[in-house]
Amino acid sequence: MHTDAVTEAIRAVADAEIMPRFRSLADDEIIEKRPGDVVTVADRLAEQVLTAIFRQQDPGCLVVGEEGVYADAGPLKALPSAELAWVIDPVDGTRNFANGSPDFAVMVAEVRRGVTTRSWICQPVHELMYYAELGAGVTRNGTGAGGGAVPTRGRGVARPLRTPARGAGGRRPAGAAGRLLRGGLSL
User: Fold this and answer.
1) Residue 9: exposed, middle, or buried by beta-carbon count in 10 A (0-12, 13-18, 19+)?
2) Under the phi-then-psi rule, with left for phi > 0, alpha for psi from -120 to 50, and beta for the rest, what region is 178?
3) β-strand 137-140 against 143-144: which pairing, if any?
4) What sections of 59-145 are H helices per DSSP?
5) Which residues contact 15 (CB under 8 A, 6 or more apart)?
6) For residues 144 and 142, what is the distance between their CA atoms, to the nearest angstrom?
7) Cα dihedral angle (142, 152, 87, 35), rounded to 10 degrees?
8) What is the pTM of this model?
9) Cα four-point dihedral sign 74, 76, 81, 83
10) pLDDT at 178 (0 to 100)
11) Which helix (H) or strand (E) covers residue 181, if one does?
12) CA–CA dist 97, 105 (Å, integer)
């Protein structure tokens, strides 16, 4: 999937599934997965829509979502050998989000054969989008974020990704994310 298409998909999902719930979650929309670890309906819906978008673009790709892996760790085990995988943390900083703090993000990484090749961090309230590509550096809202190229380890190859397990969710996406998923929004 082209970088701009992924960027637009992340923004569309944040706008449709996360931001309408920011500072307006009902008590029953915040669930404790285990003591001290919460998930919201926004986490689950955003992950479902991003998963559907990635699978629509490449039906054979592996998707490892934080909330999905909480329910089934199988995808996490397949991550190191997957030809193409997408790793999603739909709301990184869920507790902040649930408490009304603007300090949360949507995080997505493209992983090929266990190596993270591209990644995105979207902070929707702050209107920030960070993008990094292996060996090419980092941008913030489309301009260089400084620091030069992303370093690699060993002989020019990054080490395989290691990801903790977690998550699950359910409903038809609305707004721009829904149109994107149904092919009605062009990227």
Assistant:
1) buried
2) alpha
3) antiparallel
4) 66-71, 74-78, 94-98
5) 124, 175, 176, 177
6) 7
7) -110
8) 0.77
9) positive
10) 40
11) helix 175-181
12) 9
CA distances from 5 to 37, 52, 59 (A): 31, 14, 16
| Residue-level pLDDT at 100 | 96
Residues linked to residue 138 through DSSP beta bridges, in sequence order: 132
Write down how long the chain is.
Answer: 187
Do 85 and 79 meet the contact criterion of CB atoms below 8 Å apart? yes
Q: 80: exposed, middle or buried (C-beta count within 10 Å: 0-12, 13-18, 19+)?
A: middle
Place of tokens 């990644």: 119
- Residue-wise pLDDT for 70-99, tens only, equals 888 888 899 999 999 999 999 999 999 999
> How far apart are the C-alpha atoms of 157 and 37, rounded to whole Å?
34
List C-alpha distances in Å: 80 to 30, 102, 111, 160.
Answer: 32, 33, 8, 7
Tell me: the pLDDT tens digits for 108-162? 999 999 999 999 999 999 999 999 999 998 999 988 865 544 333 333 333 333 3
Residue pointed to by tokens 């929004």: 185
CATH of domain 3-181: 3.30.540.10
Cα dist. 102→40, 48, 83 in Å? 15, 22, 35
Residue 170 amino acid letter: G
